[in-house]
Request: fold
Amino acid sequence: MQSLKREAGLFQLVAYGMGNIVGAGIYVLIGAASGLAGNAVWLSFVLAAIVALFTGLSYAELGSVYPKAASEYTFIGKAYGRRPLSFIIEWTMLMTEIVAASTVSLGFASYFHSITGLPIVLIAAAVLIALSAITLTGIKSSLRINTILSIVALAGLIVVISGGFVKFGSVDYTNSPNGMSGIVAASVLVFFAFIGFDNITNLSEETRNPQKLIPRGLLISLLLSMILYILVGLAVVSLVPWQQLSTSPAPLALAASMAFGQPAFLLLAVVALLTTFNTALVLLIVGSRIIYGMSRAGALPSAFGSLNKASAPYAASILVLLIALGFLSLGSIGIVAKVTSFGSLLVFAAINISLLHLRRTAPHLKRPFKAPLSVGWISITAVLGVVSCLALLSQFDIVSALLGLALPISGIIIYSFTDKKNLLKVDKNLHQTHE
Reply:
């Protein structure tokens, strides 16, 4: 059977990670987050970053032990040996990626609609089709485009930070109109801006020396994103009153215009457009790799494990495209951000618990990277990861929570229609924890 080509080095992994993390979330959601947390929005990023870091350490350790595509499916399976649980967790993650891709493409389309007047859904569909075509050219060309657009996205954030630098200290950064509850509520929203660090593990089969580079790429990209987000949070409220930010459809562009004038607004608007494009590209890549990995593990039909001449999983990419096109009728990015975050937090809690389980039941496993701070087999960071994920889950409104729960429920339904006998024949060693 064909294998994916190992094209990615550390630089490509960090760029890919930054392209996953730094995207539509920070460029769009910081305005709504400012409305909840006021000048203390930077603190919301700190809280969200802490949750992401705890779970990121668990992903880094497990990714070094099991460098496979469809990483969550592998991690859960190795820990518990229960295929239904592995399938449901990985399906939940898959659906969050695809729903997010559809929504981000709608965000891209709304910019174009304001310029051209073309139907938003038509533009979004065209974007998804074009991006899917790019993914079929292979990971090398996809990563090249991702790297360029990731640099553009980072440059936009640096422009905002540099513009706010001279204004640092001009406001009370602890002033929150809703107190601590507003800061926590905003952290639930901006957590969407950190989602994506976990996707680096899904490139394990396309990475040179993945046991070493996957943990490094994941943690470097996550830490860089944390620093940038916190600085951006401080900069925007230094440049624009939070009340004004909260009502702006282009909050970062507005902040840049306050520092550098109208040309900066147009520049940041273009950057936001390219960043949204890049986010959708990355999400489609991840979705196709998850389906490919699940197919190779026997969780989905073997046809989705097929590769084209460019070593791209073409059948998986087409399936992701079709599902994403079907989700174009969804609502605003704010609603879907919460749904995506809810589904991701469920998965992250499960990953942290899996790490704890493997630490206890398979202590002999070779771990090229090991999460710090342990007491015996207990990983303190994994425990804190579980607690922090559950704490954020408790903060969701009932509608977002119910929509988020629909993701794993859909996984249960899909699994009930799979051919169990065929699944058991493929990759029989997937759930052997002592491998």
User: Anything to note?
Assistant: The chain has one domain: 10-416. Residues 422-435 have pLDDT under 50 and may be disordered. The first strand starts at residue 374 and ends at 375. The chain is about 70% helix and 0% strand.
